[in-house]
Amino acid sequence: DIRLTQSPSTLSASVGDRVTITCRAGQNIDSWLAWYQQKPGKAPNLLIYKASNLEGGVPPRFSGSGSGTEFTLTISSLQPDDFATYYCQQYDSYPYTFGQGTKLEIK
Amino acid sequence: EVQLVESGGGLIQPGRSLRLSCKGSGFTFDDYSVSWFRQAPGKGLEWVAFIRSQAYGGGTQYAASVKGRLAISRDDSRSIAYLQMNSLKTEDSAVYYCTRDRRTTVVRGQIRSNYYYNDVWGKGTMVIVSS
Q: Could you say which residues of chain B have pLDDT below 50?
């Protein structure tokens, strides 16, 4: 199975901050990586697919980059609605796997 | 509106069976592959099963933790995917989500590879396995 390691596990930030979350894959997954946002009691919401493609309807303050084994999700200017948990997921091969999540908290 | 709605969850005793349903609307269901994921309380996301569209053979994939006990199927005439859950264990307790899977095809020489990402998620249905 492909291991994904996200960092940090928790991130405290303020509205207006620029934040970056990192996801490292245990092997080369090209660009087959997605990012999701999940709020308590809700389903995950797709933000980014194929490492850097913004899903329709997602605000442009979200961006993704990387390929191979190292990937980042950046939120350019945090908004109140962005405080949530973020997961990376590889879809290079089955079984699909996720990072352990990054909880973005209000400082 | 593109939508997936899961149903069929509930409280069930260990060793019993349960069938979850996932009904799609707002899109051509049979054009898409479908997956099931789950999330135990307070835990991360886990992929469970996948079924291709019939146009791509209808093949399936399973997580090792559920292979032989859970079975994914689909009825395109009703726009429904199912997850048949047998021999349930307490560790199967989770919210179960179904997803619509979008395909990207990459051609490298003679080899054609398909990659699927999960663009639409249902709200989930909770399964609690407990005596």
A: none
